[in-house]
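Question: Hello, beginner here. Any chance you could explain the protein record under this note? Any guidance would be welcome.
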Amino acid sequence: MNGVVIIDKPAGFTSHDVVNRVRRILGQRSVGHLGTLDPSATGVLPIVVGTLTRLAQFYAHSEKTYEGVIRFGFATDTYDADGEATTAVQDVRLELEEIRALAAEFHGVVEQVPPPFSAKKIAGVPAYKLARKKQDIDLKPVQVEIKEFEILEMTASEATFRADVASGTYIRSIAHEMGRRLGCGAHLAGLRRTRVAEFVIEEANSLEALGAAMQQGIGESLFVHPRKLVPQLPCVTAGDDSAALIRSGRSVNLPEMSRAPQVKVFYGQSELIAIATRIAGTLFHPKIVLAEPQG
């Protein structure tokens, strides 16, 4: 079984928890994910299965879209609602336009300090392990790109937002920094990821739905159609002879792809057998073989 299925990650699960659950549901060990979500967050978690785990390299720097809530009034050590308060609780009354003006400062390429409870490494040790031991953590600012950060609604102390960000951006750090600049403290009260690259929440499935589909023998019907994967690469369909060569890792001529530097190679309409790279002219070599040789 090879494919990609979009899971709507439930709150309280780590991304690794979801991978383990999918392994059990599918009865398959070769399972991975395309982008970690914090345990308290929900939403889009693309799961790659079988040989398509080899596509992960194409999603290492994917853009993501989030919706969530920032609560103003106190900060926490984790920068979200799961942590312990690190500032006194304040009764705040904030205006929508005030928060929108502040949000406008978080746009474009900016410097951001990752949360102490994060996977960022210090001398080879993940920061969260040091944070749990109450050790001093000195995380350096890194450049991130915030493509859009829109405040949708505002109550006295909570802001609902939508954000499009490049890979490596911590929404928790945005919330924490907003609270610091206002002098009242803030943390991320809720987060839902609605998009990772081409994978969107409207196409996501619950773990229960995947389990039920497998019991009915239609589990693969929930998988993303392979031709939708890695959409930046054009598709080419190989004939019997070319497909056999590609499955064995050998180069082939693909005359119809005279200009593309890299292509997705299919056998039939839905079997993705390789990612091939141009060598010269119309000669392509399968850089990543996604199908086993046929005996």
About this structure: Residues 149 and 163 are 4 Å apart (CA to CA). The chain has three domains: 3-62+198-227, 64-196, 233-289. The longest strand covers residues 142-154. The two ends are 18 Å apart (CA to CA).
